[in-house]
Every structure is written in C-alpha cells, then in structure tokens.
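Example 3.2
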Amino acid sequence: TSLNNMLSKFNNIEYYVTRSENTGVLMCGIKKVRKLSQANSSMDDIVMEETNRFFSGADEKYNTIISSIKFDLEKANEDAKVGFYPPLRAMPYIGVFLQHAEFRKNIVFIDDNTKVHGRFICDVNIPIVGSSDAEMSKCMVVYITSWAYREVIKNKITRSNPNIKIRYF
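Structure, written as tokens:
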C-alpha cells in the first residue's frame, strides 16, 4: 500500500500496517528504533524530531488515563457500566485497547446517532448505546473524549442521570 511505501522511507522506525479482515479498517503503529542526532538534518530525522515534539509527555498522559479507567472498572460491580462517549471515528482506537480489558462486559460506547445503536465498530466487541438507553443508565462514570462538544454531551448525560460522574480525556 502507499502507506507501507511511505513508512519504509524512514530508516529509524519500526512500523506495522494491517487491515482488519472483518471490516477492512486500516491500522498502523510506529516505534522509534534509535535516538536521533541533532547534527543530522535529513528528512527522516526532521520528521522524527517533529513527531517526538508532538508526542512528548504522551506516555505520562496515557498512563494517567489508563490508571483512571482501571480504577473505575475495578470499582464497578457486576451490573455497573463505565461509558465512553468518543467521536465515532475514535471508537476503533479506544476499543482496540478496551476490548482486551478483563472488564470488557462493563464497558459501553455512547453515541446519539441512532444508526449506530446496538452495533459494534471495527472488530471491537463493545456495544454502542444512546444516552437515554437502559445500558447507559447503568453507567457510574462516563469518559467524554470530544472536546468540542463536551459541555453539550455532559448536560445531556447528567439530565438523564444526575448522579453520574463525568471525566474528560
């Protein structure tokens, strides 16, 4: 693929590109192999330096988010749910991590698009429910990942369940 060709041009990264057998979604990952020299200004070094700058601190943020999610999932009783209200385009990326969690049965995705309710996205075995759905009412906490609409989403969710905890990431 063209993505494979583009990534193969960089000497200092390991990468993978795969396509889902069920849905055809393209997934990729990149890992830096060696530390860059500041003196070398080749194109791949410039790209890697910009990538490092963009993602600096991402591992700390990631670990904080994961710790918070694990804490909430461990607190959930048998019937309690932890909800995630991400943009639809982000569900596969969040779901790839969450579908391997031991508490997967306690997780739901929330979206108000009625066309996706009761469905699953991109090989992720986590249902999508509406904000007024019965499964949503079991949520003890909802993670909202849409910064643009976070207040609108928060108000909609807390109207249907005023005791629910809202977290952002």
